[in-house]
Design goal:
The structure holds two protein chains of two kinds. By secondary structure, chain A is an alpha+beta fold. Chain A has helices at 60-78, 115-118, 124-143, 207-218, 228-232, 235-238, 256-264, 277-294, 308-311; strands at residues 2-9, 14-27, 32-39, 47-54, 93-97, 104-107, 113-114, 146-147, 156-158, 163-165, 172-173. Chain A is built from nine helices and eleven strands. In chain A, the strands form three sheets. A six-stranded antiparallel barrel of chain A has the order 1-2-3-4-6-5. In chain A, strands 7-9-10 form a three-stranded antiparallel sheet. In chain A, helix 3 (124-143) packs antiparallel against helix 4 and helix 3 (124-143) crosses helix 7 (256-264). By secondary structure, chain B is an alpha/beta fold. Chain B is built from 19 helices and 21 strands. Chain B has an eight-stranded mixed sheet. A seven-stranded mixed sheet of chain B has the order 16-17-18-15-19-20-21, with helices on both faces. A four-stranded antiparallel sheet of chain B has the order 12-11-13-14, with no helix packed on it. In chain B, a hairpin with a 5-residue loop joins strand 17 (435-443) and strand 18 (449-454). In chain B, helix 7 (214-229) packs across helix 8 (231-240). Classes of the chains: A alpha+beta, B alpha/beta. At the A-B interface, helix 1, strand 11 and helix 8 of A face strand 2 and helix 16 of B.
Chain lengths: 325, 629
């Protein structure tokens, strides 16, 4: 069956193209379904993509919101670099149609299988790739100012060469109020659980579940039910004692970048701020200039620049080595 | 669920406060158990000094808290009883025994056979005492005036229970079956979004009750004294005079006002006289000179103006108050009344009326919306008013100045947009500029102020030869921008320029505040920094948060080559910039009667209003003073 799809490419141009559609639907994130489409855009045999759409029925409004999350994350990640530089650890958005009553996102097919299926069977040399890949993926996400908020063996995939973080349906930009995340509490930190949700989304939100996922793979499929097991499995030592703070409050939790640099003690190239942010930084300074001309003597509050969505990291000015870990 | 079920909780310290864990429940139905997660925010608002009764409509809950000696937590244990609202009523809850030890983890199903609880006699007795009647009168007055959220100063242990017993008893005797919820000792800010009907919060930090309308205070005093004298007699009187059969609230008030006088002076039970504070004999501040916002005429003596009623034929008719009318009767006449502006009429100004309470709270604060046609001014105003009760999250108490005007606005604008997802028609160019809606606003224990909101056609504002009088005296202006037209606005928005030229020519140009609103921000919801702010919820009063959002929106406009749209920031003394989405999504077409296919979910619509209330001095305190600077 061929349809015409008109959508906005992640690069910003609008495209109208014929597509073959496989009507078989499968679940793709919370309140979303997916089906396979092949765009007739000149790619041999068509470009295979997944079309994510909101579910029908009484959760459709939730589906709209989840799809918006997918699109926002995809567009923000694109701005980190062009396609050649796009991080392999994160699923890619191809385009989206976000204005109509029947919106959709077009994503490249996920690679490999969920860790729920294959996580217990990684070889020892694959484990190291998995750990650095997962944490590097989270660093890229943090650089885009996005928290995934649903890291688990179901959303992180493995293709025997690399990790891929998928399903941004519950993701949120840094600095926004945390909303409750449902699902198994084994993978949701308490600051995001329905009964104890508080605070704002930040760069340490995903680390809680990421370390549990690392344990899940290390232990060949077990959920972490006792923090002593981090020592028994060698993970506490591997991360140089930093894991002790992972399960505390998010305000003192290390970030993924911290775990690489100060835990694994590996050289780590943190992606720079997206170019798209630079005009904003200039504009903010311009605002402060206008304010100073209008209100001479009005001080800029000390905490004004200390904003997670601007600095991307809580430790923009201080190293976690200064902390208690 | 016909029985009373029990849920027990424990609290422990967490990184950011209290972590609450449900330890046991007698509910076996998981769906039902999940539904009671709604109690979690309420559990945070109370402590062992009080209890909470929450009426969610078909179901009710009653919560008691307990702390053990030496605990650093405000509470350690909580017990919630939940049942159908016909089984667990407010008065029934007040009869239940105090919590004398940690609730058992093995939760039980309690019997609900209707027999009085052990505290019934004591509570009922105290409800008729002088101290309870004194506290009840202002609360009952606000309730009769139709208010939904009332905060009362906490005075003594057990007194709130007695007051609530009296209130609920009188309401039920009068056939008023609205849901009544209460917190007898609220220790934290109450988030009351899902509670229907009336919510009464007793707070130790509430230093003074709001002054109720004089007429309602008189009516409340009359009912409370009758209750203190003889509850059964009051019940019989109300029944005999058809109060129970009144078809609606207004009819009930009218019948209550026509009750025959009491046979003897009102004495509280046990012979004591219930002292009614002098504040209630003259509750509203003395009216001062007020300027008419329609024609700019000075009205020197507001209280001397005659009263008018808007009748069912759509005309105003004068109200003749008999010279011997008692206070209750005067209140009845004044209810929903208007005054006629006394200025002489000419060719350009027709006869016009204002709500009679408009001039009774000092100088009103006038707020207007400025922007091109289709910039979304009417939708922004409607969504603001639709969400206005959420101002309670900022400790701002709001109630309509004129219930009839408010009802009209709800029916014509808020309900079509919010509940029926309909696109609102634009404000016609030839529409008379009238107050769209107005509220009496009070921040914490500060003074009450009238805040009036005006909606004007963008077409009118874009014309240099036509102005609207209120612009010459407006205290605050919302400058509304549609993101789609930002690129086209490099030469500026004609409405902004016209209005700012009026602002500069005003007698006191510095007195107007500005909130620049990047409206319909859902159109830019995937762009930085719009995405962040649009998803940031209702936020707090922190002035730094307002400053950050202002900086980001300023930067966004500058980045898109539309710095000219920040002109109001330069021209007005205090100013903020915001993102807002009145609908949360796009409409499906341009034709009349089109809808918002994704439904309507307003986002960040209250933030510009909160900023404006702060900048215009309606909100008080050190934080409010810094907003807009």
């Amino acid at each position: 069956m061929a349809d015409m799809l008109r959508f906005r490419r992640v690069t910003g141009e609008y495209e109208e193209v014929a597509a073959r559609v496989d009507d078989a639907e499968f679940r793709a994130g919370e309140f979303l379904t997916a089906r396979t489409v092949w765009l007739e855009d000149g790619t041999p045999n068509g470009r295979e993509l997944r079309q994510h759409r909101p579910v029908g029925g009484d959760r459709r409004a939730d589906g709209y919101a989840r799809l918006d999350n997918e699109v926002l994350a995809g567009r923000q990640l694109y701005q980190l670099g062009d396609w050649s530089g796009y991080p392999a650890e994160l699923v890619r958005l191809h385009g989206d149609e976000s204005t109509s009553a029947d919106p959709y996102a077009l994503l490249e097919p996920y690679r490999g299988e969920p860790l729920r299926e294959v996580g217990a069977n990684l070889f020892d040399d694959e484990f190291d790739k998995f750990v650095t890949g997962l944490l590097t993926g989270l660093c890229w996400l943090a650089s885009a100012g996005i928290a995934h908020r649903a890291i688990s063996p179901d959303t992180v995939w493995w293709d025997s060469r690399s990790v891929q973080i998928t399903d941004f349906s519950r993701s949120a930009p840094f600095g926004t109020a945390r909303t409750p995340v449902g699902g198994s509490w084994a993978w949701v930190p308490w600051e995001s659980r329905p009964d104890t949700c508080y605070g704002t989304v930040g760069s340490a939100d995903d680390v809680w579940a990421a370390v549990r996922l690392i344990y899940f793979v290390r232990s060949r499929g077990e959920d972490l039910d006792d923090l002593d097991k981090l020592t028994e499995t060698g993970l506490a030592q591997m991360f140089n004692g930093l894991l002790g703070r992972v399960f505390g409050p998010p305000e003192s939790r290390p970030t993924a970048s911290d775990l690489i640099q100060y835990g694994l003690r590996r050289p780590h190239l943190t992606p720079s701020l997206a170019d798209g942010s630079k005009p904003l930084i200039k504009g903010r300074r311009s605002f402060l200039g206008a304010r100073a001309r209008k209100h001479p003597g009005a001080e800029v509050p000390a905490e004004f620049w200390d904003d997670i969505s601007w600095t991307r990291s809580r430790w923009a000015t201080a190293s976690p080595a200064d902390g208690d870990g | 669920m016909s029985a009373v079920h029990q849920i027990t909780y424990r609290a422990r310290a967490g990184g950011d406060g209290l972590i609450i864990v449900q330890t046991a429940t007698s509910l076996r139905d998981q769906q039902q158990a999940d539904r009671w997660r709604r109690l979690e925010p309420w559990l945070r608002t109370g402590n062992p000094r009080g209890s909470a009764f929450l009426d969610f409509g078909s179901q009710t809950a009653f919560i008691r808290w307990l702390a053990t000696a030496g605990s650093r937590l405000s509470w350690e244990y909580a017990l919630a009883l939940v049942a159908e609202s016909t089984t667990l009523t407010g008065t029934r809850a007040l009869e239940l025994p105090e919590l004398d030890g940690p609730p058992l983890d093995g939760a039980r199903v309690l019997s609900a056979d209707g027999t009085p609880g052990p505290r019934r006699d004591a509570v009922a007795e105290r409800a008729r005492s002088a101290e309870a009647i004194s506290a009840l009168i202002p609360l009952l007055a606000h309730t009769l005036a139709g208010e939904r959220r009332v905060t009362v100063p906490w005075a003594a242990p057990g007194l709130p229970d007695a007051v609530m017993w009296g209130l609920i008893s009188i309401l039920r005797m009068a056939g008023d079956n609205r849901a009544v919820s209460f917190l007898t000792y609220a220790s934290a800010l109450t988030r009351d979004g899902d509670i229907p009907g009336l919510l009464v919060s007793f707070r130790a930090d509430a230093t003074a009750p709001l002054p109720p309308d004089q007429g309602f205070a008189a009516l409340a005093a009359d009912l409370a004294h009758r209750f203190a004298d003889d509850p059964a007699g009051l019940s019989q009187t109300l029944r005999e005079h058809g109060v129970l059969e009144a078809p609606d609230h207004n009819a009930r008030i009218n019948r209550l006002l026509s009750l025959p006088p009491r046979g003897r002076p009102g004495n509280a039970h046990r012979g004591g006289t219930a002292p009614v504070s002098a504040m209630y004999s003259d509750p509203e501040p003395a009216a001062s000179a007020v300027m008419c916002p329609i024609c700019l005429a000075d009205i020197p003596d507001w209280d001397a103006l005659g009263l008018w009623r808007y009748n069912s034929a759509g005309d105003y008719e004068e109200i003749r108050i008999p010279p011997d009318a008692n206070p209750a009767q005067v209140a009845r006449y004044r209810f929903n009344a208007y005054v006629r502006c006394p200025a002489e009429q000419d060719d350009t100004t027709a006869v016009h009326h204002l709500p009679a309470r408009y001039g009774r709270f000092g100088e009103p604060v006038l707020l207007g919306f400025v922007g091109l046609t289709k910039s979304g001014k009417s939708h922004l105003l409607a969504s603001m008013i639709g969400a206005i009760s959420k101002l309670s999250d900022y400790r701002i108490d709001v109630h309509p100045l004129d219930p009839a005007m408010h009802h009209r606005y709800l029916e014509n604008s808020v309900l079509p947009l919010i509940t029926r997802n309909e696109v609102l028609p634009g404000t016609p160019d030839d529409a008379t500029t009238e107050i769209a809606d107005a509220f009496v606003v009070q921040h914490e224990n500060g003074p009450e102020r009238v805040v009036a909101l005006f909606d004007v056609s963008g077409g009118i504002l874009a014309k240099t030869d036509e102005t609207r009088e209120f612009l010459w005296i407006a205290d605050g202006l919302f400058f509304v921008i549609d993101p789609e037209f930002i690129q086209a606005s490099k030469a500026g928005d004609a409405t902004f320029g016209n209005v700012l030229s009026i602002v500069r020519d005003r007698a006191k140009p510095e007195s107007v505040s500005a909130a620049i609103v990047l409206n319909k921000a859902d159109k830019a919801r995937f762009e930085e920094p719009i995405a962040r702010w649009l998803r940031s919820g209702d936020g707090t009063m922190d002035p730094t948060e307002f400053l950050r959002e202002s900086a980001d929106v300023y930067a966004y406009l500058e980045e898109h080559g539309a710095a000219v749209l920040t002109a109001p920031y330069q021209a007005c003394a205090k100013a903020t910039l915001h993102v807002a989405s009145p609908t949360g999504g796009a409409k499906e077409g341009e034709e009349k009667g089109s809808k918002y296919p994704r439904g309507v979910t307003p986002m960040r619509v209250l933030r510009p209003l909160v900023a404006m209330l702060a900048m215009t001095g309606v909100l008080t305190g050190s934080q409010a003073e810094l907003i807009g600077v």
